[in-house]
Specification:
single chain, alpha/beta, 8-stranded mixed sheet, two-stranded antiparallel ribbon
């Protein structure tokens, strides 16, 4: 059977993985060579972004300077992108997942499977849901997750890194590994969707802590302590809500490696440092510094705080609670080391 891959999303990370997928599908007989990529249509210098991508083979807004393979076809229509796809790759900000799934429900092939590259959780009145569960329940398709120490620009420049795919069905994990694995983007697959996904969501909160430490010029020992406490709280949270999460997952790229790279580089760290040095709000800095991208660490910190406070657990997660309070209650950034 020939698999047809569709990409849902075309931002910085979406474009970086489009480069990998576009090349990889040509290497195997079991993939259709054409990969459609849904692009939220916008004008760049008076021209539609989809037209620019399809003629210049470059996402000039979100991944400038990187050539995309010619078999990546930008499409502004979500349903047209996914209509005959058997493999969906979700790589959009997590707040868009619900509306995308509503539009796709009942309109994709029955043998479809999905993978989420989205870092975040969905909080509602009853608690929270994982993005893979939202996709799986809404579209009734088996859903894997990919997460790792993967700063998009470095991946696009083919600098060596690793990533982790979590699967429920090993055959799906192996199929998705085919479209992502390269010599410079090494994929390991593990039977722990929940562990991989929670690592990807929670590490962005810790990255805010890393940036605050940088802004306060507290040094490398302090940052190492924040990373260690952060990993401890991530694991504690995952085990508290999902007993079958595997310890080994925290030693994969999605766990400790992603935590280190996000606390060293990445947008959450950068904006948190600027919050300390400029005194500006996170909202204002997001608009000024991120070229339309979303800051995920602050919103995930708020989501976590809502979950923990409802269950009266804030005292058990002092680092994540303190980061929330610095972001949303205006307490001084130095409390990052005083209150934990």
């Amino acid at each position: 059977m020939t698999e047809r891959v569709a990409l849902i999303g075309s931002g910085n990370w979406g474009s970086a993985v489009a480069k990998i997928i576009g090349r990889n599908v040509r290497k195997f007989d079991h993939f259709d060579n054409k990969v459609k990529m849904w692009v939220f249509e916008e004008k760049v210098n008076g021209q539609n972004l989809t037209e620019i991508i399809n003629t210049k083979h470059e996402n000039v807004k979100y991944l400038p300077g990187i050539q995309l393979p010619s078999n990546i076809v930008a499409c502004p229509d979500l349903l047209e992108t996914c209509r005959d796809a058997t493999m969906l790759v979700f790589v959009v900000p997590h707040q868009f997942v619900t509306s995308i799934c509503k539009q796709l429900k009942g309109r994709i092939p029955a043998n479809c499977k999905a993978i989420s590259l989205i870092k975040g959780i969905d909080v509602n009145a009853d608690g929270f849901r994982l993005i893979t569960d939202m996709i799986q329940e809404s579209l009734e398709v088996p859903t894997c997750v990919l997460s790792g120490a993967n700063i998009a620009n470095e991946v696009a420049e083919e600098k060596f890194c690793e990533t982790t795919i979590g699967y429920r069905n090993r055959a799906d994990g192996e199929l998705f590994r085919d479209i992502f694995h390269t010599p410079s983007f090494r994929v390991n697959i593990v039977p722990d969707v929940v562990g991989v996904e929670l690592c990807g969501a929670l590490k962005n909160i810790v990255a805010i802590g890393g940036g605050l430490v940088d802004g306060l010029k507290l040094g490398d020992n302090t940052k190492a302590a924040i990373i260690r406490i952060g990993l401890y709280e991530m694991r504690k949270f995952a085990k508290m809500f999902y007993a079958d999460v595997k310890d080994e997952t925290f030693f994969e790229s999605c766990g400790v490696a992603d935590l280190i790279t996000t606390c060293a580089g990445g947008r959450n760290r950068k904006v948190a440092e600027a919050h300390v040095t400029t005194g500006k709000s996170f909202d204002q800095l997001e608009k000024e510094m991120l070229n339309g991208q979303k800051l995920q660490g602050t919103s995930t910190a708020q989501d976590m705080y809502n979950i923990l406070s409802k269950k009266n657990l804030c005292h058990e997660f002092p680092l994540m609670t303190t980061i929330y309070r610095i972001c949303y209650e205006g307490i001084p950034p130095i409390r990052i080391v005083e209150d934990i």
